[in-house]
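Help needed: design a sequence for this.
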């Protein structure tokens, strides 16, 4: 394997190999007990990409996978030896270990009786094996935190030694931008379907008390775990709210384990997922979404890394493919591609110089992390960033294998009115650079009416293969998987040019 491939692999995968030996010696989990332990793992995925995530699980973990009727979730069985590999999945947002799945929970006719059932349920659940997995998972997180702190210290030393001379204003600006990351990402992180999400722990009053004697007692008693309960409820036939379910179930969990309730500084997050008559209790294995990777410089509509991976996977990249994102924004799609499909070459382009700059900075940040981890210079990633005009790309006709991009929705970026001219022009230029017969494209947009109209005038160059319906920050969007037809691209001129302009509103200027 070349140095480039090796460095890229290190960027892609969370390096948990060193932790695998610690799996069997985790405190209070003897090797004989955990060696053959099998559990069910649940994962949340971008809505609409459940099948893509299930395919990745089958491919990488060799495990059967079930897609939940509750959209955006999949379930699969693993042995504990595969726990590290689970964290390397690229298509999943959050992970949890299933305590028990109740497929046909019989809800009583009154709220009081239902909440009483939730209280009694806490003491009947098989907590033992899931808690063992949670402890093993905690050992992973501790080692990852240590490595992160070490990397931060190395970076600080580099700055102190003059290796990276940055203006103090730039550092403050970067810290300010990072503080806004959560707000920006909310655009892509709102629940995919209408559901209630409440987080409560035991007695609500317990989470509000900050008495000095109580907090000092908790700090000196490492044996007492802190926890919270998060309830995700979807369905219209429930006589209770997610708030009430989390409160009563959380109180029973607190009584059962004698844990301390804490809304923010918790050790264990218990999940109560309710979808119609299905109830699943789990324990969270991730503190923040796994899609928060690779990107350090965010734009107004930064795409989830998990969604970027799913779009790329739909196109089935092959070795030596040229993959282009002509409207890359912060570079989430090509960066995800370069870390997973390192034997392809990825081009990130945008007409906005600020976007290209962000993409370049994100690429640079990944290389820096790799160099710190390896302790040596890296040959780089198979990726480049360039500023260009989407309607007049500086690429040869028929030179690109795959096009994957997040097109302007016309809300935060661009406008619906502009899309009527932009979309057909983009599709036409994409058809020019894409290889006839073998080229393919995965295009994300919420402006489905405009896209469908633009595509209808180009059936001779693009053939729609599949549509994946997704929810992006509460917006109903679609990923269109297209194949390039075998027809050779011909530059329009004369009467053909006028006909195309009339059909799709393309403004051809100096295209030839």
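Sure. Designed sequence:
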């Amino acid at each position: 394997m070349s140095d480039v491939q090796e460095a890229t692999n290190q960027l892609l995968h969370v390096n948990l190999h060193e932790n695998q030996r610690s799996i069997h010696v985790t405190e209070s989990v003897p090797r004989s007990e955990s060696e053959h332990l099998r559990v069910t793992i649940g994962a949340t995925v971008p809505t609409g990409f459940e099948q893509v995530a299930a395919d990745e699980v089958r491919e990488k973990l060799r495990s059967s996978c079930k897609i939940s009727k509750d959209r955006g979730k999949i379930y699969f069985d693993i042995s504990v030896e595969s726990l590290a590999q689970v964290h390397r999945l690229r298509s999943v947002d959050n992970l949890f270990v299933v305590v028990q799945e109740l497929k046909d929970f019989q809800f009583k006719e009154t709220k009081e009786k239902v909440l009483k059932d939730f209280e009694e349920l806490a003491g009947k659940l098989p907590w033992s094996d899931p808690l063992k997995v949670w402890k093993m998972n905690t050992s992973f997180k501790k080692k990852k935190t240590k490595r992160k702190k070490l990397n931060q210290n190395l970076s600080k030393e580099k700055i102190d030694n003059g290796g990276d001379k940055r203006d103090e204003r730039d550092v403050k600006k970067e810290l300010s931008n990072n503080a806004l990351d959560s707000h920006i990402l909310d655009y892509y992180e709102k629940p995919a379907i209408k559901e209630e999400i409440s987080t409560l722990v035991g007695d609500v009053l317990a989470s509000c008390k900050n008495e000095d004697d109580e907090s000092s007692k908790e700090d000196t008693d490492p044996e007492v775990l802190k926890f919270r309960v998060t309830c995700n409820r979807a369905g219209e036939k429930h006589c209770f709210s997610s708030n009430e379910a989390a409160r009563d179930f959380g109180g029973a969990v607190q009584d059962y384990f004698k844990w301390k309730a804490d809304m923010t500084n918790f050790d264990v997050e218990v999940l109560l997922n309710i979808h119609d008559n299905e109830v699943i209790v789990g324990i969270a294995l991730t503190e923040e979404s796994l899609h928060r990777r690779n990107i350090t410089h965010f734009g107004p509509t930064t795409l989830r890394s998990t969604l970027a991976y799913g779009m790329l996977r739909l196109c089935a990249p092959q070795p030596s493919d040229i993959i282009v994102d002509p409207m890359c924004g912060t570079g989430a799609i090509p960066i995800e591609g370069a870390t997973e499909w390192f034997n392809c070459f990825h081009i990130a382009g945008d007409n906005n110089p600020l976007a290209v700059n962000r993409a370049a900075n994100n690429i640079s940040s990944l290389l820096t992390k790799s160099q710190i981890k390896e302790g040596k210079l890296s040959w780089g990633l198979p990726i480049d960033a360039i500023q260009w005009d989407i309607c007049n790309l500086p690429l040869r006709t028929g030179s690109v294998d795959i096009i994957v991009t997040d097109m302007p929705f016309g809300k935060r970026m661009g406008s619906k009115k502009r899309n009527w001219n932009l979309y057909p022009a983009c599709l036409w230029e994409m058809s020019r650079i894409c290889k006839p017969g073998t080229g393919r494209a995965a295009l994300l947009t919420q402006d489905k009416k405009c896209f469908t109209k633009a595509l209808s005038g180009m059936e001779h160059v693009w053939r729609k293969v599949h549509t994946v319906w997704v929810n992006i920050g509460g917006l109903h969007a679609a990923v269109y998987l297209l194949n390039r037809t075998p027809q050779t691209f011909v530059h329009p001129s004369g009467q053909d040019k006028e006909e195309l302009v009339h059909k799709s509103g393309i403004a051809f200027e100096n295209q030839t």
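The chain has two domains: 36-141+224-290, 305-504.
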